[in-house]
From TrEMBL, chain A:
<dbReference type="InterPro" id="IPR039420">
    <property type="entry name" value="WalR-like"/>
</dbReference>
<dbReference type="InterPro" id="IPR047673">
    <property type="entry name" value="MtrA_REC"/>
</dbReference>
<keyword id="KW-0597">Phosphoprotein</keyword>
<dbReference type="InterPro" id="IPR001867">
    <property type="entry name" value="OmpR/PhoB-type_DNA-bd"/>
</dbReference>
<dbReference type="InterPro" id="IPR036388">
    <property type="entry name" value="WH-like_DNA-bd_sf"/>
</dbReference>
<keyword id="KW-0238">DNA-binding</keyword>
<feature type="domain" description="OmpR/PhoB-type">
    <location>
        <begin position="125"/>
        <end position="224"/>
    </location>
</feature>
<dbReference type="InterPro" id="IPR011006">
    <property type="entry name" value="CheY-like_superfamily"/>
</dbReference>
<keyword id="KW-0902">Two-component regulatory system</keyword>
<dbReference type="InterPro" id="IPR047671">
    <property type="entry name" value="MtrAB_MtrA"/>
</dbReference>
<dbReference type="GO" id="GO:0032993">
    <property type="term" value="C:protein-DNA complex"/>
</dbReference>
<dbReference type="InterPro" id="IPR001789">
    <property type="entry name" value="Sig_transdc_resp-reg_receiver"/>
</dbReference>
<dbReference type="GO" id="GO:0045893">
    <property type="term" value="P:positive regulation of DNA-templated transcription"/>
</dbReference>
<dbReference type="Pfam" id="PF00486">
    <property type="entry name" value="Trans_reg_C"/>
</dbReference>
<dbReference type="GO" id="GO:0000156">
    <property type="term" value="F:phosphorelay response regulator activity"/>
</dbReference>
<keyword id="KW-0805">Transcription regulation</keyword>
<dbReference type="GO" id="GO:0000976">
    <property type="term" value="F:transcription cis-regulatory region binding"/>
</dbReference>
Length: 225, 762
């Protein structure tokens, strides 16, 4: 398993502790403590996953997240001390795939990192259609009228999960389990925010979604193909 | 007169706020108009349906006008001014007209009378002078004499009339109506119709021998000239034969009438002008007053809608300007206060957020370090290994306590936000029950779900509702003494409810209101063994409040307890009732048993459960969407009593082998945690035998089980009054009054509180 993890955190004690834990689990951690240097470190380290503290000196975590997301779809897991909805949602909207609230247990952290890394196992060749989108699962691409749409791996997984069973309505909990790999429902805000982000990319009119349809009171389903 | 139901009185609940403009009572000035309005409004009582239909039909087009009348003070004032000035002008016109006409007529009458007097005298003299020669030639026959008299009369009339140049007419009538057909018939000058022009009653009066006149008569003509208003003066005279006849002077009043018409016309025009001008003036004047008032009303509305920078425009120094200034002052004071409060809230939120971050980051490191140590404990010597156990264990507790404290302060700062969406409570309940199953199995409890055949959907925050229910269910299992726990769901009206019933130790009287207090414990002695932060139910209550819902407790000693969560079906709907009664059907009272489990009416009166108001009569405890009451600093300070801390979050935290050793290893984890850890460590060896059992215990908060006499009040005011009593041992009279009929239990509680305080002192 690939295991390069970039830890962006200004708290040296925590960073060191994270390093101990990650090494113990077989990852290769690298560290950066300053928001301004985070992007350079990211380019240099080419990590498979970024652990990003939201409160950083220099550029704050949200900004760093946005910059990384602008040039890469690498999974980003936010470390946040705030569980307020606004903070979480802002973090997720800036491009993070997942978040974990401090204080967390090492096992919890490792489970989430594994869940984010696991998805890149080789998928079988598969073509899916949802609405007017064509999804090439193995080629990891989504096209509308031959134009490809850039999605992050997580958004891609979300879309594929919905498109594989267009007849089924997915509750947020089910999506959490299938896409994020959580056994226990963590936080459905994750799903909400990512569905919004996915819609903003794949829908013709995100205000009136046709690809990812909300089923009020239940969850989401793929639109008619 | 009765009003119909569609038009509620101003004070009635149905009245819209906007309709307060309506006059509170009918004032005499508007009497007539409002009366007619009410007649239309009220319909006709006791009349046939047809008539009522008709009234309604007439009323409908008038309704907008009536509304305008009720709501528009300008219209009211203008209409009233118009009506009143019209009345004044009419009265004035009447007085002027009558005085003018009196004056004119009087002058005319005087002139006419002197003229007529002259005429009468002349006629009498002529008659006398003609009478003498006739008497001297007494041999004259009767016939020619009569002829003479007739001719003489005609001549007299003509002669008298000729002096007047149409200023008057002369009429002679014989005093005896019987011989009117003869030569002595009526004669008149100027073509006047003698019979028509002289009123009969005047002739009768003249017959009586007096001089008489009458003013308002009309002079008719035999040719077809128009009749004229006239004044008639008549007198009985004797002719040359000594026979009496009546001589009338008729004066036309045409000129006078013309003058009167002129005056009347002028007055009417002037009056009309005055009325219209007064109306216009009233309109202008009222506008001057009403415009600022309307502006103030509009701005007040905008202010209350949150646009705090709205101000009135102030010009001049008059009363209106003063109103504006006062209004603006009020607005800026309000704005200042609101801004201060917002600032305070923002600061507190910021503080909580900062504390949260500052505490959590090192705690994360500690947590991870502890876990690494804990993982490696098999390689340690027993003492160190046990220390690692305790460290990890107490860190859990510290974490959940921190989380709860932060959650509570988030509520206190008003920073908690509701993310409501339609959820099926059955799902939530199943999840919660599923999560509590392991704990229930260890306790030997079976959790039953009742009422889940149909969807129970409400707009709610799933995360918060789940937290509340998890708390209630875990509490019920914890305190259920291994007996069944029943989770009941129901939906009715605009509300959904979940009630969690257990059959454990129950609640003592008065405790139903206190279980929601922060850091409150039913039994101080149990506090060391059962977990819980003591904040779980407080948070649950805040969660319920945030939904505009209720969280209430009921219980009886030894009979178990029931906690009921009621939520409105839609987020902004106020709650009116709950689909589930707070006191369950299988309560001792409902089964007719007393506190000792004996049938009621037995000798053990003292043990009976205090009287409880039936749940449906109990006032709703939480005003829907009530702002979270600011908590007194004193109460808060008392609440956060470190000695009350031992206990952990509402989570199931099984740990093996914690009885191995006992030492304080919670260094660096804060004084509270250390105190708690010490307490537990001291307990551990003492209760070694019970360790296995404790091992099996899930840690929950607020071990609260007792009977509540006024269970429905549970959520409101419990915090400050009850909390203060419990920790300070002070009796709060207000709190005691709140719980009607619960005076004694409260006292007892206070004593308990004091003892608790004393033991803490030691």
């Amino acid at each position: 398993m690939k295991g390069r993890v970039l830890v962006v955190d200004d708290d040296t004690a925590l960073a060191e502790m994270l390093g101990i834990v990650l090494r113990g689990e077989g990852f290769e951690p690298s560290f950066v403590a300053d928001g301004d240097k985070a992007l350079a470190a990211f380019r240099e380290a080419k990590p498979d996953l970024v652990l990003l503290d939201l409160m950083l000196p220099g550029r704050d975590g949200i900004e760093v997240c946005r910059l990384i997301r602008a040039e890469s779809g690498v999974p980003i897991v936010m470390l946040t001390a705030k569980s307020d909805t606004v903070d979480v949602v802002v973090g997720l909207e800036s491009g993070a795939d997942d978040y974990i609230v401090k204080p967390f247990k090492p096992k919890e952290l490792v489970a989430r990192i594994r869940a984010r890394l696991r998805r890149s196992e080789e998928p079988a060749p598969e073509q899916l259609a949802i609405g007017d989108l064509v999804i090439d699962v193995a080629g990891h691409s989504v096209k509308r009228d031959g134009q490809s749409i850039a999605l992050t791996p997580l958004e891609f997984d979300l879309l594929v999960a919905l498109a594989r069973k267009p007849w089924q309505v997915f509750t947020r909990e089910v999506l959490l389990e299938q896409v994020w790999g959580y056994r226990h429902a963590a936080d459905t805000r994750l799903v909400n925010v990512h569905v919004q982000r996915l819609r903003s990319k794949v829908e013709r009119d995100p205000e009136r979604p046709e690809i990812v349809v909300t089923v009020r009171g239940v969850g989401y389903k793929a639109g008619p193909s | 007169m009765s009003r119909d139901s569609s038009s509620p009185a101003p004070g009635e609940p149905g009245a819209r706020p906007g309709r307060t403009v309506r006059p509170p009572r009918r004032s005499a000035r508007f009497g007539a108009l409002v009366d007619s309005g009410l007649m239309l409004q009220g319909g006709v009582q006791g009349s046939s349906p047809l008539l009522r239909l008709f009234t309604r039909w007439v009323r409908r087009p008038l309704l907008p006008m009536m509304r305008l009348w009720r709501r528009n003070i300008q219209l009211k004032v203008v209409v009233t001014t118009l009506l009143m000035s019209l009345g004044v002008v009419l009265l004035l016109g009447f007085v002027v007209m009558s005085s003018v006409s009196n004056g004119l007529l009087k002058a005319k009458v005087n002139a006419a009378q002197s003229q007529a007097d002259g005429g009468f005298r002349a006629a009498q003299e002529q008659a006398n002078s003609a009478h003498q020669p006739a008497a001297q030639g007494g041999d004259a026959a009767d016939g020619p004499t009569a002829q003479n008299a007739a001719v003489w009369l005609s001549e007299l009339a003509e002669q008298l009339a000729s002096g007047g140049q149409n200023a008057f007419y002369v009429v002679t009538l014989s005093s005896n109506a019987s011989d009117s057909g003869s030569v002595r018939g009526p004669r008149a000058s100027g073509g006047v119709d003698p019979i028509q022009s002289v009123p009969v009653d005047l002739r009768e009066r003249v017959d009586g021998g007096s001089l008489a006149y009458q003013s308002n008569t009309r002079i008719d003509f035999i040719d077809h000239r128009e009749s004229q208003p006239g004044l008639v003066i008549g007198k009985q005279l004797s002719d040359l034969n000594g026979d009496s006849y009546q001589l009338y002077y008729l004066f036309p009043l045409t000129q006078e009438e013309e003058s009167m018409n002129l005056v009347r016309g002028t007055l009417a025009t002037a009056g009309l002008f005055v009325v219209v001008l007064l109306g216009a003036i009233a309109w202008l004047v009222v506008r001057q007053v009403v415009t600022p008032v309307r502006m103030a009303a509009g701005i007040a509305e905008r202010l209350s809608a949150g646009r705090l920078q709205e101000r009135m425009k102030v010009t001049g120094e008059d009363d209106i300007a003063r109103l504006g200034e006062a209004f603006n002052k009020m607005a800026s004071n309000l704005q200042l206060k609101i801004q201060q409060l917002e600032e305070l809230s923002r600061m507190q939120r910021r503080f909580v957020s900062d504390v949260s971050h500052e505490l959590r980051t090192p705690l994360t490191t500690v947590r991870m370090a502890a876990d690494v140590i804990h993982e490696a404990r098999v390689d340690f010597d027993p003492v160190t290994a046990r220390s690692a156990e305790l460290l990890a264990d107490q860190l859990d507790r510290f974490e959940s306590l921190l989380a709860d404290l932060l959650e509570i302060s988030r509520f206190d700062a008003g920073a908690a936000a509701l993310e409501a969406e339609p959820i099926d409570l059955r799902e939530v309940v199943r999840r919660v029950v599923g999560g509590a199953e392991p704990l229930a199995e260890r306790k030997g409890t079976h959790i039953r779900i009742v009422g889940d055949q149909q969807p129970v959907v409400a707009e709610a925050d799933a995360r918060r509702v789940e937290r509340v229910l998890r708390n209630l269910v875990v509490n019920a299992v914890e305190h259920g003494d291994g007996k069944d726990v029943v989770v009941r769901l129901a939906a009715a009206g605009g509300a959904v409810a979940v009630a969690v019933r257990d059959y454990g130790v129950g609640l003592k009287p008065g405790e139903a209101t206190r279980v929601f207090s922060r850091f409150w414990r039913a039994d101080p002695a149990r506090a060391r063994t059962t977990g819980g932060t003591g904040l779980g139910l407080s948070i649950a209550l805040e969660d319920a409040r945030l939904h505009g819902g209720w969280l209430q407790a009921w219980g009886e000693p030894g009979g178990g307890s029931q906690f009921r969560l009621t939520l409105p079906r839609t987020a902004d709907e106020p709650l009116r009732g709950s689909p589930i009664p707070l006191e369950p059907d299988d309560s001792r009272r409902h089964r007719g048993l007393n506190g000792a489990g004996l049938p009621l009416g037995g000798g053990t009166k003292r043990a009976t459960v205090p009287h409880q108001a039936p749940p449906d009569r109990v006032p709703p405890p939480v005003p829907a969407k009530a702002p979270i009451a600011p908590r007194l600093a004193r109460a808060a300070a008392l609440d956060v009593d470190p000695t009350a801390l031992p206990g952990s979050g509402a989570r199931v935290v099984p740990r093996q082998g914690w009885e191995e050793s006992g030492a304080d290893t919670a260094a660096g984890a804060g004084p509270e945690a250390r105190a708690g850890a010490e307490a537990l460590a001291k307990d551990a060896p003492a209760a070694a035998g019970a360790a296995a059992e404790r091992d099996a215990q899930a840690e929950t908060d607020a071990p609260a089980q007792t009977d509540g006499p006024a269970g429905a009040e549970a959520s409101e005011g419990a915090e400050d009054s009850a909390g203060a009593e419990a920790s300070a041992g002070a009796e709060d009279p207000a709190g005691a009054e709140n719980r009607a009929g619960a005076e004694d239990p409260v006292r007892r509680d206070a004593v308990v509180g004091r003892e608790e305080g004393a033991s803490r002192g030691r």
